[in-house]
Structure formats: C-alpha cells, structure tokens
C-alpha cells in the first residue's frame, strides 16, 4: 500500500459516517472452528479503492485460505453448518479491525450457509482422495511440495491441480464460496505444500491474496503519516476530497474498461489492417464450451490450450494463462498488441485476447490465435505418425521456420526474441507450411515458465548454453534453438538422446561427434522418403551444427540462415567447439579448423 493510499484511507475514515446497521438477531451459540487470524496479515491489502467485485473476490479467497488451514488441522473441508453464523461474525470482526471495514455479507451478497457448503457432497480429506487416483495425488504432491515463491514453482503446482477431480468445467461458477475449483487449491495448500496455507507465498500464489510488502515497518510509518495527516488535514481536506473523487472516477473507468467483463467485444485498432479483438469472458466460455476438457488441445507450464469456435464458425486456439500473478494486466495488453502487430505467413496469427476477473477463478488472461490444423512438428517427428516426413517436406519446414524467425528478429519493430523455439512450437498447416507459435509469450507467461521446465535437462536440450548458464539472452539464443530443431528435423531424433535410465546426450553433441569424423550424412534419419542429393542434405546438417554451436559468436544470424537455405551460398566453416558446455561459452578466440577433419588432439585442448 502506498503512502498515498494510506493517507487517503485515513482521510476517508475522518470523512465517512458509519453506516447504521439494522439489528438482526443472529445465532452465535456455536463457536466457529475456523481460525481467521491467519489472514490478518493480508486484510490491509483489501483496499477501499478496489471495485466491489474485486473486494468480494478477496473475501472469498480469504475464506478458502482459512478453510485450507482448517482442513490441515481436522481433515475436514467445511465447518459444520450450525457454525456458519459465528464464522461470518469472526470474519467480519477481522475486517472491522482493518482500515477499510464494510459489511461482508450485505455488500457481496453472500448467504450465511455458503461458508459451510462446497464441492458436490465432499466434506472430508478421505472422500476427496478416494475420487482421485494415487497417481494424480502424487503428481500434485511432487509439483506442490516446494516453496511457491517463484512464478515457475507456482505454475508447476497450479498446472498439476488441473488433473484433480471432480473436474469443475461445468460446475458452479458463482454463488458457492468453495466450489470444486477452490477445493483443489484448498487441498494442495493443506496437504501437498510443505509450507502450508499460513505461509505468505502459498497464500499469495494459491489464493491470490495480495502481499503487503511494507509489513515490517508499517506501524512506524503509519504513526508518522498519521501525524503528518493531522497537520495538513485541516487545510487540505477539501482539495484532497475533490482530488480523490477525480482519481477514483478515473480509476474506476479504467478498471471497468480493462478488467470487468462486458458482453460486447471491442475492436482495438492497432494501425494498418490489423484489428485485434478484445473478447469478453462469456464469448470465450461460449467458444470453448465452458473450457470443456474435450476442447483441450495442449497443456503447458503456462496453462492449457483449448480449441474453440467463434460465432462466425472460424476455429481458433485459445491459450489460457495461469493466474499466478494478479498484477500486470496493462503490460499483458501491451505485449499482446506488440505480438499482434507482427504478421508473417510463417508465424501463427493472433486474433485477440481476453482479460477478465471471475469470482470463482480469479484473474483470467486468454489469448486467441488462428488454429493451425495439422499438429506440431513434434507430433510428426516423434508422435505415432503413420509415415515419415519426406525430405522435400523437411526442407520446406526448415526454410519456412527460418523465414518466420528471421522476420521476428529483423522484420518486426521492436525485434522479438522467441526464447522457446522447439519442435512443439512449430505448427504445420495442411500443406506442411510451418508456422511458429508462441512468439513473444515468454514475457507474458509467469516468470521463467516458458523456458525452464522442471526437467532441467530437457531445457538444456533446446536452450543456448549462455542463456541457461548466465541468463544472457540475444537473438543468437533463438538461432541455437533453431539449430537443435533443424537437427531434430533432419535426424528424427529428440534434442536429448536417452540411453539407459538417467543417461542423456545432447543431440548437438552427438551430431558434432559425427561431423567431426567426416560422417555428416549418418545424421540423416534412416528411411526418410524421397531423399535429396547428398550435398544438399550435408548442407542442412552442417548448418544445423553451426547454428547449435555452443559459442554464440559462431552462430549465423537468421537472415544468413535463410540466405544459405534459399540459395547456393555455402555453409561457413564451423569453428572448433569447447568440449565442455561450461567452458569458454563467451570466448571469442578459438582455433578455426575445417569441418570433418579434426583430430581428437585439437578437440581435447580445452
Ligand atoms: C442456534 O443453533 C443451535 C445449533 O443448531 C441450536 O441448538 C440453537 O437452538 C440455536 N439458537 C437459536 C437462538 O436459534
Ligand atoms: C463491524 O462493524 C460494523 C460497523 O461498521 C458493526 O455494525 C458490526 O456489528 C461489526 N461487526 C462485528 C462482528 O464486530
Ligand atoms: C456424491 O453424490 C453422488 C450422487 O448423488 C455420488 O455419485 C458421488 O459418488 C458422491 N460423491 C462422494 C464423494 O460421496
Ligand atoms: C493408493 O494409496 C493408498 C495408500 O498409500 C493405498 O492404500 C491404495 O491401495 C492405493 N491405491 C491404488 C489404486 O494403488
Ligand atoms: C515435502 O517435502 C518435505 C521435505 O522437502 C518432506 O519432509 C515432507 O514429508 C514432504 N511432504 C509430503 C507430504 O510428502
Ligand atoms: C451450493 O452448493 C450446494 C450443494 O453443496 C447447492 O445445493 C447450492 O445450490 C449451491 N449454491 C449456489 C448458489 O450455487
């Protein structure tokens, strides 16, 4: 909370007249077993300036957190219904102690019994565990038994929760305080997370409660500010009240426009012919049949991808991001606009986006792209494909992908680094024209998710060493990943070669070992239909090895790659590689030797 906001709330406290409450006799003889004190650390974040719907969502999230703590202590999700009244009173008491108090139930329209109602007829831990397989529960345990401080950990955990039953896709979305979606987080925080629901990171990540960063020095600061406020109060109150009204009005206007759902879609013109559609949440729900499980066409660290049909019958892909961070809607919209301004035949086109706030599921961010129907390159290379890709099709995919990337790097303004080039992100249309997907999304996805999966080795397969080790990110990191994809495309082998249980070799190392002894054609996949001329196939292999060179200075630019693939231009000589990934990644002085004829002695000088 900023000084300014504290100041405003103090002034408000002076100005507001306590609303008189009707006197209702409420049954408080049964003590509430929930412990609301654990959300005390968050209630200052329930800001008076928030719109009511946001405020009420926070109230609901607070209840879920408290229920999670209760579940952990008693193995029961819900308090007995006879205690509903006292539970609301306990909560109200806590809210009354914060700087912004309001009557929860009348403001938000919560019915008293809701606090004791939940997902279907499940009330105990064992009932919940009985309807979920041991594999699912173990998956949740593995993904969530870690600190949820980092966005990556959070996304890993929340992704695993989507496997829990009962699946909520058709379920109650409003009304009940703890529906089946909520039960997933309540369960995970209670039993799968090592820190438990009272932990600040867990509470923030799984229940979207706002962190109050200035907790420690708050008292001191509040005193200072209160004294300051009193001094200036008399002279400035009128000016400030006027200012506050203007500020609030502006803010509300912005909020309603940016976040709250409306039933109309707006056309955001971003210049030229490109119109980016801002979809409403209800339009997105309709297109995906309420995010039906049968519409899921992909899963990732950031969330699920759904197939959808727009009212004009066009088919689209909708990517729904995990709501690990409630902040940053404005930058999300900004990034989406930049991505939408990039159009190329080899890039998946973005049609629009949706930002919404829902009661049951919190912040929602969804992007809507053209549907590319023929699956990904990964499916074709490693899936249960009926027949292998022919050499001419492989050439077409290599060239198209290179053109798409070259456009991102050099044609787009500002230039875009993809950061997550892999076979799964190269989509193919009916004519096997490749379309690069997910560009620019690395910035939108929860921090770190797109390139760092939980399988660090798998990451190393595609991520350039200087990026993986030192976080140095340039266009040449994309070139490295492109080189790996090109190797996969030519060899039909995965970026990480598995042998034995825990033994892996990088495809790039394996390819280099063959090139080094003059056998580049051994890399080409056996049984590839319609093989090309050997010198062309060798050129592809050499280019792939050059692009996946561990030292970034050695890699060509994507423009050079396109030129080499598209003309008679030869592949430059491949510089010698250090034999360890960690050695000399940034080195600029390395012996240059001709390809295919290096002896082991020059290789082992490192
Ligand atoms: C309050 O609820 C308890 C338990 O349901 C019940 O025994 C008691 O009679 C109720 N008291 C009033 C005043 O309604
Ligand atoms: C909370 O404060 C309101 C007045 O703002 C009062 O009417 C109500 O009784 C209080 N509730 C509790 C539980 O203290
Ligand atoms: C909930 O009730 C339904 C039918 O009413 C039943 O099929 C289901 O098994 C019950 N679930 C649990 C966890 O008891
Ligand atoms: C799941 O785990 C529990 C306890 O660990 C065990 O009793 C049960 O048999 C397991 N169920 C299956 C289907 O493996
Ligand atoms: C979670 O991990 C901690 C240590 O990392 C371990 O002590 C604890 O037993 C684990 N929790 C569960 C439920 O397995
Ligand atoms: C809440 O859930 C109960 C079942 O647990 C159901 O009967 C009730 O209709 C639901 N309330 C709302 C408002 O959906």
From TrEMBL:
<dbReference type="Pfam" id="PF07714">
    <property type="entry name" value="PK_Tyr_Ser-Thr"/>
</dbReference>
<keyword id="KW-0675">Receptor</keyword>
<keyword id="KW-0812">Transmembrane</keyword>
<feature type="transmembrane region" description="Helical">
    <location>
        <begin position="224"/>
        <end position="247"/>
    </location>
</feature>
<dbReference type="InterPro" id="IPR017441">
    <property type="entry name" value="Protein_kinase_ATP_BS"/>
</dbReference>
<keyword id="KW-0732">Signal</keyword>
<dbReference type="InterPro" id="IPR001245">
    <property type="entry name" value="Ser-Thr/Tyr_kinase_cat_dom"/>
</dbReference>
<keyword id="KW-0723">Serine/threonine-protein kinase</keyword>
<dbReference type="InterPro" id="IPR043891">
    <property type="entry name" value="SPARK"/>
</dbReference>
<protein>
    <recommendedName>
        <fullName>non-specific serine/threonine protein kinase</fullName>
        <ecNumber>2.7.11.1</ecNumber>
    </recommendedName>
</protein>
<keyword id="KW-0418">Kinase</keyword>
<feature type="signal peptide">
    <location>
        <begin position="1"/>
        <end position="20"/>
    </location>
</feature>
<dbReference type="GO" id="GO:0005524">
    <property type="term" value="F:ATP binding"/>
</dbReference>
<keyword id="KW-0325">Glycoprotein</keyword>
<keyword id="KW-0472">Membrane</keyword>
<dbReference type="Pfam" id="PF19160">
    <property type="entry name" value="SPARK"/>
</dbReference>
<keyword id="KW-1133">Transmembrane helix</keyword>
<dbReference type="GO" id="GO:0016020">
    <property type="term" value="C:membrane"/>
</dbReference>
<dbReference type="InterPro" id="IPR011009">
    <property type="entry name" value="Kinase-like_dom_sf"/>
</dbReference>
<dbReference type="InterPro" id="IPR008271">
    <property type="entry name" value="Ser/Thr_kinase_AS"/>
</dbReference>
<keyword id="KW-0547">Nucleotide-binding</keyword>
<keyword id="KW-0808">Transferase</keyword>
<feature type="domain" description="Protein kinase">
    <location>
        <begin position="291"/>
        <end position="574"/>
    </location>
</feature>
<dbReference type="InterPro" id="IPR000719">
    <property type="entry name" value="Prot_kinase_dom"/>
</dbReference>
<keyword id="KW-0067">ATP-binding</keyword>
<feature type="binding site">
    <location>
        <position position="319"/>
    </location>
    <ligand>
        <name>ATP</name>
    </ligand>
</feature>
<dbReference type="GO" id="GO:0004674">
    <property type="term" value="F:protein serine/threonine kinase activity"/>
</dbReference>
């Amino acid at each position: 909370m900023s000084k300014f906001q504290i100041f405003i709330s103090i002034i408000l406290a002076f100005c507001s007249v306590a609303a008189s409450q009707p006197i209702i006799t409420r049954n408080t003889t049964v003590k509430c077993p929930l412990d609301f004190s654990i959300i005390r650390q968050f209630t200052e974040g329930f800001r008076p300036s928030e719109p009511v719907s946001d405020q009420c969502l926070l109230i609901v999230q607070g209840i879920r957190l408290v229920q999670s703590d209760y579940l952990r202590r008693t193995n029961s999700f819900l308090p007995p219904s006879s205690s509903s009244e006292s539970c609301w009173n306990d909560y109200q008491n806590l809210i009354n102690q914060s700087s912004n108090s309001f009557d929860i139930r009348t403001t938000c329209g919560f019915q008293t019994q809701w606090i004791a109602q939940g997902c279907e007829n499940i009330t105990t831990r064992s009932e919940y565990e009985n309807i979920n397989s041991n594999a699912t529960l173990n998956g949740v345990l593995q993904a969530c038994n870690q600190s949820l401080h980092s966005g990556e950990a959070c996304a890993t955990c929340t992704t695993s929760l989507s496997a829990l039953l009962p699946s909520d896709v058709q379920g109650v979305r409003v009304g009940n305080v703890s529906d089946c979606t909520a039960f997933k987080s309540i369960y995970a925080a209670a039993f799968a997370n090592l820190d438990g629901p009272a932990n600040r990171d867990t509470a923030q990540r799984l229940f979207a409660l706002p962190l109050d960063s200035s907790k420690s020095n708050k008292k001191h600061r509040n005193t200072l500010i209160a004294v300051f406020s009193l001094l200036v109060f008399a002279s400035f109150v009128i000016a400030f009240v006027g200012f506050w009204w203007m500020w609030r009005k502006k803010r509300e206007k912005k909020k309603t426009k940016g976040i709250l759902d409306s039933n109309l879609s707006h056309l955001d013109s971003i210049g030229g012919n490109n119109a980016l559609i801002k979809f409403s949440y209800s339009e997105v729900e309709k297109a995906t049949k309420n995010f039906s499980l049968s519409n899921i066409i992909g899963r990732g660290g950031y969330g699920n991808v759904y197939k959808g049909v727009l009212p004009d019958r066009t088919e689209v892909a909708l990517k729904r991001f995990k709501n690990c961070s409630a902040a940053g809607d404005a930058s999300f919209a900004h990034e989406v606009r930049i991505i939408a301004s990039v159009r190329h035949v080899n890039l998946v086109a973005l049609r629009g986006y949706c930002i919404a706030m829902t009661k049951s599921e919190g912040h929602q961010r969804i992007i809507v792209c053209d549907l590319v129907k023929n699956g990904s390159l990964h499916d074709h290379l490693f899936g249960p494909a009926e027949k292998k890709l022919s050499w001419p099709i492989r050439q077409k995919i290599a060239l198209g992908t290179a053109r798409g990337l070259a456009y991102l790097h050099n044609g787009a303004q500002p230039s875009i680094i993809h950061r997550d080039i892999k076979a799964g992100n190269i989509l193919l249309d009916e004519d096997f024209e490749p379309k690069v997907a997910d560009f620019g999304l690395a910035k939108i996805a929860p921090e770190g998710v797109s390139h760092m999966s939980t399988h660090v080795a798998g990451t190393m397969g595609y991520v350039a060493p200087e990026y993986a080790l030192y976080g140095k990110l340039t266009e040449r990191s994309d070139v490295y990943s492109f080189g790996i994809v090109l190797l996969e495309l030519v060899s039909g082998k995965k970026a990480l070669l598995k042998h034995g249980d825990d033994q892996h070799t990088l495809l790039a190392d394996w390819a280099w070992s063959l090139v080094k002894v003059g056998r580049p054609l051994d890399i080409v996949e056996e049984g590839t239909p319609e093989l090309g001329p050997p010198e062309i196939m060798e050129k592809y292999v050499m280019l792939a090895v050059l692009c996946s060179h561990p030292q970034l200075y050695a890699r060509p630019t994507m423009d050079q790659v396109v030129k080499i693939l598209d003309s008679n231009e030869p592949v430059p000589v491949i510089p010698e590689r250090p034999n360890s990934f960690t050695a000399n990644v940034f080195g600029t002085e390395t012996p240059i030797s001709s390809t295919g004829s290096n002896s082991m002695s020059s290789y082992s000088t490192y």
